[in-house]
Amino acid sequence: FKKIPINGKKTDELYKMTETFNRMMERLEESFLKQQQFVSDASHELNTTLTIIEGYASMLRRWGTDDKSIQEESIESIYEESKRMRKMTRQLLDLASLQQGIEPIREPFNLVECCKQASKLVHKLHNREIKIHSTSRELIIVADPTKIKQLLIILIDNALKYSTKFIEIYISEAEGDMIIRVKDFGIGIAEDEIDLVFERFYRVDRARQRKTGGAGLGLPIAQSIVREHYGSIDIVSEEGVGTEVIVHLPKDGTS
Ligand code: ADP
């Protein structure tokens, strides 16, 4: 984009208009570059996964019938990588639809019950204790129940993935907001990386993450869900001590 040069001789009005135009162009360029980066990261992730699947399929074709251990390793890896790819494409579709700006459903439901359901689902994957503390058995929120459940699943899954002990969830209400805190005692996140984890495809340790199965899309989805509910999401974390994700959502579903 080419900026319009600001000529000192122009009137104040024109000067202001030119400045506004230049700022708009800068923002447009920034979002265009971000979009380009996103497409490139998504292609890279899908390409890496497909390369691995292709490699194992080729091994299976050459030596699979003679060597039982190669057969087992290849089948297992192809299965795991396909699962990873399916999760990633699902998350990409979720992000795309969240960014279309369609208004979410707003209906009243019990946030404590929703949290219990999300915990039950994630518990099946990790089989570790999830302690839920709430100020009441029934805390009603006006929001999209499916999306809030998805948000909770992402946060609970992360808390369990990046720790080895039990995790805790606190649900309370204050000043028109519901407050959800998901707390773990795991590896934590370095201070200079806390803002970065909300970027699409950002992972603190790319090499290790392949094992845990994440593509770095969970927190961006969580943030989009919170934003479309006019809420906020913050992370308080210390490396080696643990992480707490704090979500504020307006109780009545309005900004
Ligand atoms: P992923 O699917 O890789 O977990 P996310 O977007 O959910 O993607 O998270 C991005 C990165 O943030 C993760 O790869 C991990 O490095 C870091 N992270 C997220 N949650 C936690 C947590 N509770 N404790 C430590 N690190 C975390």
From TrEMBL:
<dbReference type="GO" id="GO:0016301">
    <property type="term" value="F:kinase activity"/>
</dbReference>
<keyword id="KW-1003">Cell membrane</keyword>
<keyword id="KW-0067">ATP-binding</keyword>
<keyword id="KW-0808">Transferase</keyword>
<keyword id="KW-0597">Phosphoprotein</keyword>
<protein>
    <recommendedName>
        <fullName>Signal transduction histidine-protein kinase ArlS</fullName>
        <ecNumber>2.7.13.3</ecNumber>
    </recommendedName>
</protein>
<keyword id="KW-0547">Nucleotide-binding</keyword>
<feature type="domain" description="HAMP">
    <location>
        <begin position="1"/>
        <end position="33"/>
    </location>
</feature>
<keyword id="KW-1133">Transmembrane helix</keyword>
<keyword id="KW-0902">Two-component regulatory system</keyword>
<keyword id="KW-0418">Kinase</keyword>
<feature type="domain" description="Histidine kinase">
    <location>
        <begin position="41"/>
        <end position="253"/>
    </location>
</feature>
<keyword id="KW-0472">Membrane</keyword>
<keyword id="KW-0812">Transmembrane</keyword>
